[in-house]
């Protein structure tokens, strides 16, 4: 049918085939007709072309034929007021008719034409030499010019054609030179086909000129490998051995003038052994991977040479290698050795030698842990306490024992043995001693309980052969030798024991001394290894335990603690440097300091140690807490002598220093005058002769300066003797009764007793009987370096007007000093550690305004009268202006008067009557008065002693202000109070 | 020009004055008294503005925050308080020091309070959070901390152990410089390169911050026992210090010579002083009086 139809020509449009069944279509009304534009879609409006398809019926959405624009404008999206243009109501195809230019961008024809595309492909191809991926990449678009450059155009105008080189045309002659050169070249192997044969063949007319050859354009090659930049493959001519005959002419190597690294690979890795050609493109397919003859699959059975295959002998299995033939000779038969001849009595059953099996076979009846362990060669877990004693101590013990008894083990052990195990089977002495070897080494008779225990499993022990056990080392060898890993070889075991003992002694090449001369080098080496292994494994229990614990850094009762070296290192230097005002590196310490994370945040500074878990200065080690940490006892520290003028202008305030400075600050009160002899050590004061003050005045001073006993007690821990007053008589008897015992025994006693004895001593000064005791006690303390003791005695001696200082002398001499109140409204005096050390936090004293002496008298009078205590801060801070001297004095005394100060406060609060106070202050007070009375004398004379000097100063000032009430505070501090205060202080951790 | 004219001698009526401090812009000042009160003044007009009762014992130091909205104060009651300036109510009360708190300072943006105490520690308290625990405790000092200064990235403390310590937050290091004697007052120079430290051996030392070397020493005044303030004037040309002989000494910073003394007509120590941050105006405190000094051409405004 189709074919038929094709032959006909149809003219006109065929009528529509009308199907009778279809419902008859209603003729379209004109209003409903939809205008269809060129693009076969309903026309928009047709308003401009008379389409009239818009409107009410054919509406775009409304009666008016268009969607009314809605107006929305919001803060985020401002409505743009766009004026409506005619284009908005037109179809696109109508634009042209009405002269409205299209506003859309499109590529012009010249760019989309097929012709151009072809040209361009070609250009790209030539430019990139097919190296770029694809020819239509964006890269190509960038590189290849879109149209002919002006240069090309100009060249063309000048007669240049593509494919030609630039430059003047030349005659043929020039070219022939090259070909002649070619002909001269030696050619190995088969000669190449003649180059440019057509050229040479051709006859060239004279007048024909040739254009120069075109220069190759720059080739842009995409890098599609992973070699380094500039890498070129290995030149085969260089890589192959020089003898190799080159079959091919050298490829033209384009020489680029650039420098840099190029050529073959840059080198080989450090691990490569040879300078292999890493990058050469070798391929596994170049090699035969198999040894067998390849079946030539490609050729099939008709492959050449296949037919020539040798005839394989009938019984022969396997392929014949090509080029080989089967030999006709037979191989000589392999020699066969017959199996060994079994003896007739051979039984295929292994019996162990008797010795080995014996213990095992016999002792499975009753065994306890110890015996089993022994059998198995273990170290007994413990046999006696003495096993835990280190070897050294054991030896010492043994030595002592041997000294005492003469002979050691054999006798005693046999004795114990007999005594303990009478009921048992008779055991030879040696067996027992070896069964419980450690016992003898340590114990002797003392270890008998364990010895009996050890001999309990005697059945086992007895079965051991004496000869064998005898190989075990004597008791004096180390315990490690007790279990003998090499029991089977007595000689070896002996060597091993020797080895162990040598190792114990710390011999580095222990084995060398042990090794038998008959052994070969190899044997020796092996054995050494064995020994060292065994020694490592079979460690005695004690050492195993020891490895679990570390030794304490210091003893608990040790009172000297090592301070961090960093802290203390150049303290002296620093001190002296500061003195010489050489500030700088000497006086500077720099520490790493980790600020808290939040602090950094608050300061708006990045954390210098991000991720650090610590804050503050990283601490090496926390010191052991002790009062002594704050006091320096190092005897080599030179006590500094303050340059103090002779009169009262003493340095009042020592620099409150750290621990190191303590010593200095302690000694600061020493005037040159009063100390003709400066001692370098605190303890050297002990050696000094106590000046014997025969006068009662001296005695009283001494007593005055004596530190409160309770302080001693508080510090040195004896809380037993509460009531010092009651103790004194006893103490005197103590002293007379108890001669100084040997120090080792007496030290404890002394520490508890000495305070009281000291007191009595000073009390009973007039009687020189005690002197002897005193001195002997002192010499004891000299010998003994027990610190606390020496301190005590030191302080004791200092009290007797000894110019040398001791640590506590400063602290403890305070109480009898006058308290000087601060000026009211006075600035805050700096409270230093020293002050706090000296007894209490005397907040009120240093800060609260107090009554000046003058005021005090009046106020004090009223006080005394009505017994009402005024709040301190309400007291007038208006002090007499002419109190300068007092001021000065206060400076001097302030820091020494801590305890007194507190004490005084308490007193004041108690607001006792003067009479009471006077009763309280008793003899001390009297003595104070005494010194006061002597004041004028002293003044005229030289102040020979520091303390008296100070006292005098004080009294002077007070007499001027007539502050007798102040001196009330001199009444002795109640011991309990002081003690409590001290404790609370230490509890607070102030010290 | 030096403040050499006594403009006002204000009797503060709060017991012994412990400290006098300008606020950050120098328009007002705070005085801390031994009667537990802090008073806010306009020293230029001799006006008492407000009285704050926040402490339970003597107030030893106070400082106004950078925005003048708060006052931090410390005292012998071991508390550090942050007080609202307007209402006088305690905003925060930091407890933690084991002893008298000697000195207190805000940091530059008043986000933390630093307080130094006789318990040998400096504690850093957070003002931003509700936390009442110190953010950090600087317990390197071995004796009472007498003075604190804070710069934008450094904390400077002077201690009675003879050291002044500089904590550098940027580098994370702490430098401790030993001066031999108890340090009673420390301050930065305006350029932040040097540290002025008073020691209890009658001397003030100008120390190089980086190397710890002494650049200058100022002597002639008396300072043996007390925590006596020293300061630099607003242009870093002079060093000012109180003294225990009732004078205020002025040294030339470079020459280290005493160029002027302010006689307060008292023999008591001039222990606290504060220099106006910009103008030539000095506040000193002695006994219960505050003294306002200005240059010689200034007029007292209420006459």
UniProtKB/TrEMBL annotation, chain A:
Q: Composition bias, kind Polar residues: at what positions?
A: 442-461, 677-686, 730-769
Give one Pfam family. Answer: HTH_TGH
Kindly state one GO CC term assigned in the UniProt record: nucleus
Q: Where is the composition biased (Basic residues)?
A: 903-912, 924-952
Occurrences of domain G-patch (ranges): 147-177
Q: Which PROSITE patterns match?
A: G_PATCH
The residue range of the signal peptide is none
Instruction: List GO BP terms, alphabetically.
Output: mRNA processing
Basic and acidic residues biased stretches: 74-88, 169-185, 639-650, 780-799, 872-902, 913-923
Query: What's a Gene Ontology MF term here?
Result: RNA binding
Enumerate the residue ranges of region (Disordered). Answer: 67-89, 165-201, 398-486, 639-825, 841-991
Q: Which family does it belong to?
A: Belongs to the GPATCH1 family.
Q: What is this protein called?
A: G-patch domain-containing protein
Which species does the entry assign this protein to? Magallana gigas (Pacific oyster)
UniProtKB/TrEMBL annotation, chain B:
Q: Which family does the entry's similarity section mention?
A: Belongs to the WD repeat MORG1 family.
State the Pfam families in the record: WD40
Chief location of this protein within or outside the cell: cytoplasm
The Gene Ontology CC terms held by the record are:
catalytic step 2 spliceosome; cytoplasm
Which SUPFAM superfamilies would you find in this protein's record? Answer: WD40 repeat-like
Localization, UniProt = Cytoplasm
Instruction: Supply the name of the protein.
Output: WD repeat domain-containing protein 83
Q: Its Gene Ontology biological processes?
A: mRNA splicing, via spliceosome
WD repeat start and end residues: 10-42, 94-126, 239-261
Alphabetically ordered keywords of this record: Cytoplasm, Repeat, WD repeat
Query: What is the source species?
Result: Magallana gigas (Pacific oyster)
């Amino acid at each position: 049918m189709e074919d038929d139809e094709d032959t006909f020509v149809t003219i006109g449009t065929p009528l529509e085939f009308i199907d009778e069944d279809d419902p008859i279509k209603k003729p379209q009304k004109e209003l409903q007709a939809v205008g269809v534009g060129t693009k076969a879609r309903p026309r928009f409006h047709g308003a401009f072309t008379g389409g009239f398809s818009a409107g009410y019926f054919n509406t775009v959405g409304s009666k008016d034929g268009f969607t009314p624009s809605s107006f929305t404008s919001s803060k985020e999206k401002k409505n743009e007021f766009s004026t409506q243009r005619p284009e908005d109501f037109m179809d696109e195809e109508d634009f042209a008719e009405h002269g409205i230019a299209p506003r859309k961008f499109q590529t012009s024809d010249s760019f989309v034409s097929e012709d151009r595309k072809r040209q361009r492909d070609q250009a790209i191809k030539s430019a990139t030499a097919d190296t770029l991926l694809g020819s239509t990449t964006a890269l190509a678009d960038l590189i290849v010019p879109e149209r002919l450059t002006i240069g090309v155009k100009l060249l063309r105008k000048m007669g240049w054609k593509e494919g030609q080189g630039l430059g003047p045309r030349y005659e043929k002659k020039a070219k022939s030179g090259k070909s002649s050169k070619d002909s001269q070249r030696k050619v190995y192997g088969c000669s190449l086909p003649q180059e440019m044969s057509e050229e040479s063949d051709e006859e060239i007319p004279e007048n024909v000129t040739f254009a120069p050859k075109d220069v190759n354009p720059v080739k842009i090659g995409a890098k599609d490998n992973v070699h380094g930049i500039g890498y070129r493959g290995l030149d085969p001519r260089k890589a192959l051995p020089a003898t190799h005959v080159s079959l091919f002419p050298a490829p033209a190597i384009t020489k680029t003038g650039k420098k840099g690294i190029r050529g073959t690979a840059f080198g080989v890795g450090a691990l490569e052994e040879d300078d292999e050609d890493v990058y050469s493109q070798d391929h596994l397919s170049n090699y035969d991977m198999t040894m067998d003859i390849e079946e030539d699959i490609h050729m099939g059975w008709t492959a050449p040479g296949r037919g020539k295959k040798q005839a394989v002998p009938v019984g022969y299995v396997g392929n014949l290698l090509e080029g080989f033939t089967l030999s006709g000779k037979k191989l000589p038969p392999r020699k066969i050795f017959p199996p060994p001849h079994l003896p007739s009595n051979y039984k295929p059953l292994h019996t162990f030698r008797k010795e080995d099996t014996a213990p095992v076979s016999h002792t499975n009846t009753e065994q306890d842990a110890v015996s089993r362990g022994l059998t198995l060669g273990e170290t007994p877990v413990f046999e006696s306490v003495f096993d835990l004693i280190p070897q050294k101590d054991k030896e010492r013990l043994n030595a002592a024992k041997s000294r005492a008894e003469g002979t050691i083990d054999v006798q005693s052990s046999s004795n114990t043995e007999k005594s303990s195990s009478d009921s048992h089977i008779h055991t030879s002495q040696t067996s027992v001693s070896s069964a419980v070897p450690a016992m003898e080494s340590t114990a002797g008779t003392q270890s008998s309980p364990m010895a009996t225990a050890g001999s309990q499993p005697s059945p086992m022990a007895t079965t051991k052969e004496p000869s064998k056990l005898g190989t075990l080392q004597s008791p004096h060898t180390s315990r490690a030798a007790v279990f003998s890993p090499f029991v089977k070889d007595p000689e070896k075991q002996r060597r091993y024991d020797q080895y162990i003992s040598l190792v114990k002694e710390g011999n580095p090449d222990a084995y060398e001394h042990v090794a038998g001369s008959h052994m070969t080098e190899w044997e020796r080496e092996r054995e050494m290894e064995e020994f060292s292994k065994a020694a490592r494994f079979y460690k005695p229990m004690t050492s195993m335990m020891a490895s679990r614990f570390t030794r304490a850094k210091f003893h608990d009762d040790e009172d000297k603690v090592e301070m961090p070296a960093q802290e203390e290192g150049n303290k002296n230097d620093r001190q002296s440097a500061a003195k010489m005002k050489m500030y700088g590196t000497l006086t500077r310490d720099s520490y790493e300091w980790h600020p808290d994370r939040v602090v950094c945040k608050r300061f708006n500074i990045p954390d210098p140690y991000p991720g650090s878990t610590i804050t503050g200065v990283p601490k090496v080690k926390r010191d052991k807490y002790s009062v002594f940490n704050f006091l320096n006892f190092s005897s080599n520290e030179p006590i500094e002598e303050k340059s103090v003028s002779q009169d009262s202008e003493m340095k009042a305030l020592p620099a409150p220093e750290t621990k190191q400075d303590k010593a200095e600050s302690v000694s600061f009160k020493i005037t040159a005058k009063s100390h003709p002899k400066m001692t370098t050590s605190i303890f050297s004061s002990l050696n000094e002769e106590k000046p014997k003050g025969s006068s009662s005045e001296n005695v009283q001073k001494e007593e005055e300066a004596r530190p409160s006993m309770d302080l001693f007690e508080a510090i040195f821990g004896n809380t037993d003797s509460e009531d010092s007053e009651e103790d004194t008589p006893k103490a005197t008897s103590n002293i007379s009764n108890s001669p100084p015992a040997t120090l080792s025994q007496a030290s404890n006693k002394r520490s508890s007793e000495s305070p009281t004895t000291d007191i009595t001593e000073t009390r009973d000064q007039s009687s020189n009987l005690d002197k002897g005791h005193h001195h002997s006690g002192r010499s004891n303390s000299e010998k003994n370096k027990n610190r606390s003791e020496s301190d005590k005695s030191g302080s004791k001696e200092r009290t007797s007007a000894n110019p040398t200082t001791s640590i506590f002398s400063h602290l403890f001499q305070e109480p009898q000093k006058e308290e000087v109140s601060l000026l009211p409204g006075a600035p805050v005096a700096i409270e230093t550690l020293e002050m706090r050390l000296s007894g209490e936090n005397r907040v009120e004293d240093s800060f609260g305004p107090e009554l000046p002496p003058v005021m005090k008298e009046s106020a004090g009078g009223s006080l005394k009268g009505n017994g009402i205590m005024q709040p301190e801060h309400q007291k007038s801070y208006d002090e007499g202006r002419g109190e300068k001297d007092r001021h000065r004095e206060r400076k001097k005394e302030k820091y020494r008067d801590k305890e007194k100060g507190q004490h005084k406060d308490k007193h004041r609060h108690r607001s006792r009557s003067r009479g009471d106070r006077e009763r309280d202050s008793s003899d001390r007070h009297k003595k104070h008065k005494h010194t006061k009375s002597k004041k004028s004398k002293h003044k005229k004379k030289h102040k020979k002693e520091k303390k008296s000097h100070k006292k005098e100063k004080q009294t002077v000032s007070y007499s001027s202000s007539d502050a007798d009430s102040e001196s009330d505070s001199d009444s002795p501090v109640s011991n309990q109070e002081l003690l409590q205060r001290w404790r609370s202080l230490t509890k607070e951790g102030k010290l | 020009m030096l403040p050499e004219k006594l403009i006002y001698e204000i009797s503060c009526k709060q017991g012994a004055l412990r400290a006098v401090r300008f606020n950050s812009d120098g328009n007002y000042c705070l005085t801390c008294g031994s009667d537990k009160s802090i008073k806010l003044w306009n020293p230029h007009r001799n006006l008492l503005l407000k009285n704050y009762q926040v402490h339970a014992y003597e107030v030893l130091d106070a400082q106004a925050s950078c925005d003048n909205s708060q006052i931090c104060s410390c005292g012998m009651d071991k508390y550090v308080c942050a007080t609202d300036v307007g209402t006088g109510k305690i905003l925060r009360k930091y407890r933690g020091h084991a002893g008298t708190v000697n000195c207190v300072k805000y940091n530059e943006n008043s986000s933390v309070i630093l307080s130094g105490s006789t318990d040998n520690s400096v504690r850093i308290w957070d003002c931003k959070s509700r936390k009442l625990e110190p953010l950090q405790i600087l317990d390197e000092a071995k004796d009472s901390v007498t003075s604190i200064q804070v710069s934008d990235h450094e904390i400077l403390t002077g201690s009675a152990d003879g050291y002044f310590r500089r904590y550098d937050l940027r580098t994370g290091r702490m430098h401790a410089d030993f001066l031999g004697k108890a340090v009673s007052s420390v301050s930065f120079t305006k350029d932040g390169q040097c540290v002025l430290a008073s020691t209890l051996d009658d001397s003030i030392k100008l120390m190089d911050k980086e190397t710890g070397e002494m650049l200058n020493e100022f002597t002639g005044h008396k300072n043996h026992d007390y925590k006596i303030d020293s300061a630099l004037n607003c242009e870093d040309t002079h060093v000012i210090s109180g003294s225990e002989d009732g004078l205020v000494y002025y040294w030339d910073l470079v020459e280290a010579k005493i160029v002027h003394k302010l006689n307060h007509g008292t023999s008591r120590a001039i222990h606290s002083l504060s220099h106006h941050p910009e103008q030539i105006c000095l506040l000193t405190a002695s006994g219960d009086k505050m003294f306002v000094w200005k240059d010689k051409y200034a007029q007292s405004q209420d006459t």
